[in-house]
Amino acid sequence: MNIGEPAADRDTPYSEIEQATKFYWNMQEDPLLAGYELLWRPSSQQQWTHQFYVGLVDTVEVPLSKDNVVFGLRAVGTNGKKSPAVFPMPLPSEYGAY
């Protein structure tokens, strides 16, 4: 299930609803880019509480429900410096809304 896609219908068994969250982004070609880092925090927190270095990839799936946490993604430079985190946006759904 991509971010923003609804369950099949109201009768979808809970066991069939994925608790994983998938992220996709456009990876930039830059010799100063070492990779990307996924951040998250509980909805009740204001600061990032977890970070996960995913490397030079353009997609990642984590076993965390998007209902319980706030996610962010940031670039990591070859010098170790990190960009400000950006919040992911859902993929457009077939229903014309996010």
Main pleated sheet: 3 strands, antiparallel
Strand content: 25-35%
Radius of gyration from the alpha-carbon trace, in angstroms: 15 Å
Average predicted confidence as pLDDT: 83
Estimated structural class: mainly beta
Tally of helical segments: 0
DSSP, total strands:
5
Give the N-to-C terminal Cα separation.
Answer: 13 Å
Task: State the low-pLDDT regions, or none.
Answer: 1-5
Order of helices and strands: EEEEE
Shape: globular
For the largest beta sheet, what order do the strands appear in spatially?
Answer: 3-2-5
Helix content: under 10%
Per-chain topology:
Layout: E1 21-24, E2 33-42, E3 50-55, E4 59-62, E5 69-77
Question: Which key features would you list for this structure?
Answer:
disordered N terminus; two-stranded antiparallel sheet; 0% helix; 3-stranded antiparallel β-sheet; 98 residues; 34% strand; mainly beta
Give an overview of the whole structure.
The protein has a 3-stranded antiparallel sheet, with no helix packed on it. Strands 1-4 form a two-stranded antiparallel ribbon. It is built from no helices and 5 strands. The chain has a domain at 20-77. The protein is 0% helix and 34% strand. It is mainly beta and 98 residues long. The protein has strands spanning 21-24, 33-42, 50-55, 59-62, 69-77.
Short description:
By secondary structure, this protein is mostly beta strands. It contains no helices and five strands. The relative contact order is 0.28.
